[in-house]
Amino acid sequence: MASRVAKTTLGALAAPLSSNCPFLARTPALHQSINQSTQLPALVQSFRGHCPFLGSVGHVSKHQSNNQSINETANQSVNETNKLDGLSKAYAEAKTVGANKFLNPAKMSQPIAQAESVAQSTDASIKQSTNQSSAETADSIIASKMAALKREGRYRVFIDIERQSGEFPKAFHHHPDAIREHSVAQSRTLQTNEQVKEVTVWCNNDYLGMGQSEVVLSAMRNAISRSGAGAGGTRNISGTTPYHSRLEQTLAAAHEKEAALVFTSGYVANDATLTTLGKLLPGCHIFSDALNHASMIEGIKHSGAKRSVFRHNDVAHLRELLQAADPTAPKMIVFESVYSMDGDIAPIKEICDLADEFGALTYIDEVHAVGLYGDKGGGVAQRDGQSDRCSIISGTMAKGYGVFGGYIAASSLLVDAVRSFASGFIFTFSLPPSVVAACEASVSYLMHSQTEREHHQERARTLKEMLIAANLPVLLSESHIVPLMIGDAKMCKQVSDLLLNKHFIYAQPINYPTVPRGTERLRLTPSPLHTNEMMQKLVAALDSVWAELGLPRQFNYVTINGVIHIERDEKGAPVTCCSMSENTAAVPSSFMGAIDAMPNNQMSQVAA
Ligand SMILES: Cc1ncc(COP(=O)(O)O)c(C=O)c1O
Q1: 399 catalytic, yes or no?
Q2: 340 CB under 6 A from ligand 1?
Q3: With bands split at pLDDT 50, 70 and 90, how would you rate the model's confidence at 124?
Q4: Which pTM does this prediction carry?
């Protein structure tokens, strides 16, 4: 874990630090992190010419010889970083595939242009500061990056939420003063005080409320009584318990696979598995959906495999890329089932058909679907009868299962290979038995009960209908995720603050880089435990906040390869709706389905 933190921190710091670095070559931990970091090319590029020690670092030399040309790799990496920094990845992708046909980019890119100008002014101030001492320079560079983040309105403020056991989705919101002045237990007695307030949580990923289920809690308590708090070691050295082995068997059964392997999180499961498989297969070529989660993108990068990105959910584009690839190369298609921000679902069958045709492995992330779909909770692939066609399924036990930890399920051979070679599995502590026992109870329970799944779907449908009836700009997703569009980072934060402080409703603002700039939103996640009364209160509160802030109730937007683009006027304000019938001819057929599903004149997806 320590090396992961070091690695991540280094990666984040590398790009902005461009001056002298007397400390860089000194610490062994840093050496190791640098060696492991896939950001190495970016680091090398950033420090080259400024740091006299860099050239003599053994690991760097080794890395150099491993690459055809360090310059090439470094430049490529820097370009990639710039691209990601300056533009939203999704927007860039859409632009290259013909968004211009449907959109006026000048109109659509207003918030992106603003973000770019913030980035440019930050870079200018960074250049000015290069004459200062290196420590001062580092501080001022980082401070100006932070200031830019705040100016853009996407600085993340964490809200202290104490869930109430047995009362989900109710929770206590602790004001920062309460945290400073009282223990958590003490502050409970302050419930009537200004500092601690009861709220209803609407952005929780404990989708089914399993984190509060007595089945799960009693399994956790029993395991603590029997085994204590921690696991005591890595999986290899005294950290495998009967709880772990049983959980892996249960997960395999839930997915109807031969085997499963538990990781410390879904993120680590994706990163470690993709890194390992990409490295194990010589010449491996990975085909990755454009909207894949960061954990998969990192895993693919770490694997060093050749990577082609296909447009989101676009099987025709995937086919083109597969056709163009070396027919003898081992191939893997990497995608998600439910995309968590728009709530859309992958064409799993069509992707598996292509995988069969081109002899590719399939890697599906079912993180937002496990426990929620399929008759054993095995996800959308199971619901659609495609599980056996997915070579590797990855999941989390933190969301639908309500606890913590990640996993993969696959053939015994693949699982054994990842178990044997994955650094992210081998060199980290095993999950505590109590957590593992709770996970097992949850997975087992949801293998047999359909009640929660059915109720969950009904709740999501009901909330969407209520939002539509209130003329609020809900995105009609095909899954349980209910995005409510705002389209501006600062407004999004204001909406969230008003909901929390005035209406006692907690919905965290969702902004870049989680979603493309200009598509900021609330992401509402109704669970089976959200009652009609709670929904009515939510909708009334939203209606009042929308009126108070004068927010648009309709957007003129298009979805291009699954990426939403909101049309804007010259001032950057969202353009509100025109009627569908006027624009139908111009609307690409790829989003007719979504339009059909929309009630008359609510949210129209129209071309500019
Ligand atoms: C698609 C996807 N995959 C993987 C993860 C990581 O899962 P975990 O939270 O268990 O690390 C997330 C997290 O939100 C996700 O959205």
Answers
A1: yes
A2: yes
A3: low
A4: 0.76
